Amino acid sequence: MAILEMKAVTKSFGALTVADGIDLQLEDGEALGVIGPNGAGKSTMFNLIAGVLAPDGGAIVFQGRDVTANSAAERCRAGIGRSYQVPHPFSGITVFENLLVGATFGDAMTEREAYGRCAEILRETGLLKRANTVAGGLSLLDRKRLEMARAMATGPKLLLLDEIAGGLTEGECQSLIATINRIRSTGVSIIWIEHVTHALLAVVDRLMVLNFGKKIGEGEPRAVMESAEVQEIYMGIEVDA
Q1: Residue 7: which CATH number?
Q2: More exposed terminus of the chain, fewer Cβ within 10 Å: N or C?
Q3: What domain count does the chain have?
Q4: How far is residue 28's CA from residue 8's CA, in Å, rounded to a whole number?
């Protein structure tokens, strides 16, 4: 059963088309990777799914229900959680308090109800020892973990990850991959935008390629990466016909 469908979704800003009839179907429990050059429309696609932007045309269906007209808050409470490419922690409060904000505002839990969930997520994401650390003092790896953890605190059925491996060392990246695989093992569906392609290949079932807001490829990850069109457009490698 599909947890998410995008049906011919379009979005333009003046003469610039940033989503050009995007069709997407994500199965329940599936992990999808999304790649494409800068400006391809990847983060715009997330903003459309999450309700930050309203499409000009098409429909977005989540768990069989049309959510095209729903607000970002309504979609979050329905089960769509996301991280941001640049971490945005509430820097003046602790890591644990950041998660409480996600659980209480994103999933309408009481503070008392949220305690157990937040503690478990801290263990799951490797942040338990940082629970009482003020978020503004975290390392880059831990800020990225906190982005995931706060999104998880909202109780998502679908998790949108936006370039969460960027800027990490190889060891940190491997730690992040392990964390994402643990999250996935709980049944959460994932769409992951990432330039660090070896990280994607360690997690996702399927790969989708965007260019100028249009889907230009989709399928088994390694086959997609080896295609001539992807190598030429995304990787800048000229391929003879």
Answers
A1: 3.40.50.300
A2: C
A3: 1
A4: 20
Structure confidence by residue, pLDDT tens digits, 80-132: 999 988 888 999 999 999 999 999 998 888 888 899 999 999 998 889 999 99
Q: How many CA atoms, within 13 angstroms, populate the side-chain half-sphere of residue 26?
A: 31
**Residue 117, in any domain of the structure:** no
Report in angstroms the alpha-carbon separations of 240 from 39, 217, 227, 235: 25, 19, 12, 15
* 26 in any annotated domain: yes
Contacts with 171 (C-beta within 8 Å, 6 or more apart), sequence order: none
Whether 42 is covered by a domain: the verdict is yes
| 0.70 exceeded by pTM | yes
Does residue 127 lie in a domain region? no
Please calculate the CA angle 35-90-159 and round it to the nearest 5 degrees.
35
Number of Cβ atoms within 10 Å of the Cβ of 172: 17
Q: Domain residues for 48? A: 2-87+155-233
- d(CA 95, CA 13) in angstroms, rounded, equals 37
Cβ(42)–Cβ(65) under 8 Å?
no
